[in-house]
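Handoff note, outgoing to incoming analyst
You'll be picking up this chain. Sequence as last confirmed:
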Amino acid sequence: HEAKDGDESSDEEGEDLELDDETFPVVKVFQCSKEAWQDVGVGRVFIQCSNDSPHAPPELLVVNVAKDSDECIMRVPVFEEDVYRVDQPTLLMWREPTLDDDQVALSFVKSHCCAKVLEVLHVIQKKLRETSDDFKTVSSFKERLPIPNVANLPRIQNLLNSIENRFHKERLAEAMMADGYLDKLMDLIDACADLEGDELCGVAYNTALSVVMLGEPSLIEKLFSDELVFKLVAALQSTPSHTLIHPHTH
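Most recent structure output, in case you need it:
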């Protein structure tokens, strides 16, 4: 299933970003809802980028039946959030930011095509973040903070690591301090650090470190409070390769 040629698009519709076919890599599309994976079909993927016009459409990731066909298997926006990951060399996956149960996977024939699409997505995400107002308010960060559970810890860590603007870091810190979010997150991190197994200990360590590395005074003060300091120490003593003995707070 291929993508529509970008030369046929008008300026208002944007342009198709060539990924080279290797310009339109072949993919099999899978969608998961409520833990049930479905085979959606085989097609060719391309990414449609908007131009600089204020009326231009959003960046889209599209899978069409054929290069010269309008029959579409999938058409979704490119998300600002760090939801994209390569699970295997030829498997690109992401989870809808606002729908915890909905996931999408693209299975590529060639690993370098998968890597190229991910690279292009990262470039677009950087552009979106530079021009977006969505990360400028506390409420917008509250909406983007994933529910604190084990499955979402990598997404939380990616969000924390993706914020570079000082003002945005302050807004994110305020969002994490609200509604007991940081307390719930540290409870989860502490629970992971107490469990045996390198993977969960590594997740606990990396997420706790990402919170600290935000460097926001309000977060640091809260983390070193009597309620959370032992949980922080426990998490930072849990590394991907080993778990050190740490004080328990339960």
